[in-house]
Design goal:
This protein has about 450 residues and is an alpha+beta fold. Helix content is about 30%, strand content about 25%. The chain has helices at about 20-30, 45-65, 75-85, 85-90, 110-120, 165-185, 245-250, 265-270, 295, 325-330, 360-375, 385-395, 405-410, 430-439; strands at about 30-35, 40, 65-70, 75, 95, 105, 130-140, 155-165, 195, 205-215, 220-225, 255, 275-290, 300, 310, 310-320, 330-335, 335, 350, 380, 400-405, 415-420, 425-430. Strand 17 and strand 18 (about 335) form a beta hairpin. Helix 1 (about 20-30) crosses helix 10 (about 325-330), helix 2 packs antiparallel against helix 6 and helix 11 (about 360-375) packs parallel to helix 14 (about 430-439). It starts with 20 loop residues before the first helix and ends with a helix. Bound molecules: adenosine-5'-diphosphate and magnesium ion. Adenosine-5'-diphosphate binds next to strand 8, strand 13 and strand 16.
């Protein structure tokens, strides 16, 4: 993509409404634009990042055997009345009346709808387990939408729902999601620590929030410092094998959110120098809730003895549109964003230090064509602009690599290759720079 043609409305000034760094950088880097309180439009740069995040989430869900569906954003109130949540949900639910006076709502979540879909077609325990997920916009009329995409009113969520015949099956389904979440966030270059979270009236130990440590997080978290150094999981996971040892390992040390925090246990289990008390960003939440919805909505299947039983369910959310903000909170410096490669909007920023100069243009066009030809995503700054602002903008948008081509270097037969994360710059020939990038 040529920057001269790209829709990238960057801002020089720091927007005054943005209280945290990710919000400031997302606005300044032209990723999003507020449409109304807690509701955002995603501009090309921001949308590219969100799509990459979405794709990683999707691949890791699929790896577990979960199947993607798409449920509507607008739901009928009927099922919510059956589950009892139409009244319970209160003002957070956006209620809509259609032209026939029917009560509708913009879905804040999908337990009711998915249970109804399941119930309509699954009859026997032999068809279980099943896990269905979608990646869809939600609306929650939050009292305090803030921090940009971090706490929006309209936001994109991946929500998966598992169906099992009994508790043991539900635990296996839960463990698959637990492990998939570890992998999902690791692939985004993030360390998200699973923390014991509120499990509501169901109780038990099957509710975990995945938290990224960050000063600006909205959650208060308590955990053992060693989690920060735990090895990340490889990709060679057999989701049909027993995953309990992995889950046990990742829950072997103390880690709890505010709701679940037990000061006495924390002090007994964690030596003082290992205690981390910090803010965290909740990027995912997995949750077993038994027959809470299958009972009232009548999602029963026949067990081996023919008796109908209510299915055991769990739900598993990832805040897809929160993720770009969370990643920026964890990965930035004073100059701007530092994208991990896996979610970067483009991998390489190609900077022409003197657009209009025949030698610079020719070298840049050559590099651009070769990178594109090799399938690398490049943003080529071909604008006639001074080097200073070009560098500043490239640092702000945070692409992992900068390939800098200018007249002085070309005379000496060199270009510069800069790593955004380390800040290190190397002078080398264009060919070596390209083989480094493509190698
Ligand atoms: N208002 C919001 N804006 C952006 N992302 C959200 C919002 N609410 C929830 N999420 C994301 O969706 C995930 C699943 O949501 P869920 O656990 O149902 O929400 P909550 O913790 O608010 O009950 C959360 O872990 C979070 O990453
Ligand atoms: Mg939650």
């Amino acid at each position: 993509m040529r920057l001269s043609q790209y829709f990238l409305p960057t801002l020089k000034e720091t927007p005054s409404e943005a209280q945290i760094v990710s919000h400031r950088y997302m606005l300044r880097a032209g990723m999003i634009r507020q449409a109304s309180a807690g509701i955002y439009s995603w501009l090309p740069m921001g949308y590219r990042v969100m799509k990459k995040i979405e794709q990683i989430v999707r691949e890791e869900q699929n790896a577990t055997g979960a199947q993607e569906v798409l449920m509507p954003t607008i739901q009928s109130a009927d099922l919510w009345k059956q589950s009892g949540r139409y009244d319970d949900y209160g003002k957070e639910m956006l209620r809509i009346e259609d032209r026939h006076g029917r009560e509708m709502l913009y879905g804040p979540t999908n337990e009711e709808l998915i249970t109804d879909i399941f119930k309509a077609s699954v009859r026997s325990y032999r068809e279980l387990p099943k896990n269905l997920y979608h990646i869809q916009w939600k609306f929650r009329d939050e009292v305090r939408p803030r921090f940009g995409v971090m706490r929006g009113r309209e936001f994109l969520m991946k929500d998966a729902y598992s169906f099992d015949i009994d508790f043991e099956g539900a635990r296996r389904s839960y463990n698959k999601m637990f492990v998939a979440y570890l992998r999902t966030f690791a692939r985004m270059g993030m360390r998200a620590i699973p923390m014991e979270a509120d499990s509501g009236p169901i109780g038990g130990d099957m509710s975990h929030e995945f938290q990224i440590l960050a000063d600006t997080g909205e959650s208060e978290i308590y955990c053992h410092r060693d989690f920060v150094e735990f090895d990340v999981l490889g990709s060679d996971i057999d989701f049909e094998s027993d995953l309990q040892p992995i889950v046990d390992h990742w829950t072997s040390l103390y880690a709890a959110t505010d709701d679940k925090h037990d000061p006495a246990r924390f002090e007994a289990e964690v030596p003082e120098e290992k205690r981390v008390v910090h803010r965290g960003i909740e990027v995912g939440h997995i949750f077993y809730f038994g027959t809470k919805y299958s009972d009232p909505l009548g999602a029963h299947v026949a067990y081996s003895d023919g008796e109908p039983v209510a299915v055991h369910m769990g739900s598993y959310g990832v805040g897809v549109s929160r993720m770009p903000g969370a990643i920026i909170e964890a990965s930035h410096d004073d100059a701007g964003i530092i994208w991990p490669e896996s979610v970067a909007p483009f991998r390489v920023g190609l900077i022409n230090l003197r657009s209009g100069d025949a030698a610079c243009d020719a070298a840049c066009e050559d590099a651009y064509a070769k990178l594109l030809g090799a399938g690398t995503e490049v943003l080529y700054d071909d604008r006639e602009e001074r080097p200073g602002p070009k560098f500043a903008e490239m640092d702000l948008i945070g692409l992992p690599w900068q390939l800098i081509i200018g007249p002085r270097g070309l005379k000496a037969g060199t270009v510069e290759l800069k790593s955004r994360a380390s800040g290190e710059t190397e002078e080398l020939s264009l060919d070596s720079a390209l083989s480094r990038l493509l190698g």
